[in-house]
Every structure is written in C-alpha cells, then in structure tokens.
Design brief:
This protein is an alpha+beta fold and 144 residues long. It is 38% helix and 15% strand. It starts with 8 loop residues before the first helix and ends with a strand.
Amino acid sequence: MQPPHMVDPQAQQNLAAAMMWQMQMGGGLQNPASMMGGGLQGLQSLQGLQGLQGLGMMPPWPPPMPMVPAQLSVRVDGLKFEYQLTEDDVRKVFSRYGGVSKVDVDREGTKATVSFDQPHQAMAAQHDLDRKQLAGMSGGFLRV
C-alpha cells in the first residue's frame, strides 16, 4: 500500500466534509484511501466534490452552538424575615460547583447573581441547590 500523497489543506478539508456528508446521508463511508491516496484518481474525486459543493448538494457546516449563560439568580424564600445574603456566603456555597467568576449581591442583600466560568457548572449548581432547605432555618430554602 502506498502512503497517501500530499494534498493541499483546502482539498483535505473538502475531503473531510465529503466523508462526513456521506456518513450523514446513510451511504456509509466509501474507501477513504482511494479518495486520498489514489494520486490522480483521488485528486479528481476531490475536484468532483468541490463541484458538488458549488451546486448546493453538500450541506453547509452547521452553525456554532449558542453559549448558555453561566449566570444564576439566587434568593432565600420561606422565612418570615428577609435573610441578608453576603458575597462571601454566596461564593462559598456556589464555588463547590466550579469557578465562580463574579458574585453580585443587591443593595438590600435579598438577591444575588452568581457568574460561573463554565455553563455546566451553573447547571449543576442550579440542579442541586434550587429549593434546598437551609440548615437551622425552619421553612427557609434557596431559590436558584
């Protein structure tokens, strides 16, 4: 078996796109070695694929996934008095779920906004802490 011939980067990208498209369309993957290492035959295959792309037969690359905000709003409910949130308290509780980049507590100390480094960290904190009963405070719970 001969090693694949060097193909320019654009041709390699087109080949990868064609192979992915072929897999998505359910046709299975034809022998990629024949497309890459076949010298003139491989180059002709790539040129043919470029023509298909120009005709709109190959789907464009999918749009990037939107970023999920890594920010949560926090408050304490269920108490007969207003619980005063502090930045330190909020940071200590939420930093167990990952990097907390910012904590903003409103002027009254009744609500806070927590910003995480990664969206999955915010999702984990919300899942675990929403409606969590506060220790030592009958009826008090977090709303995230």
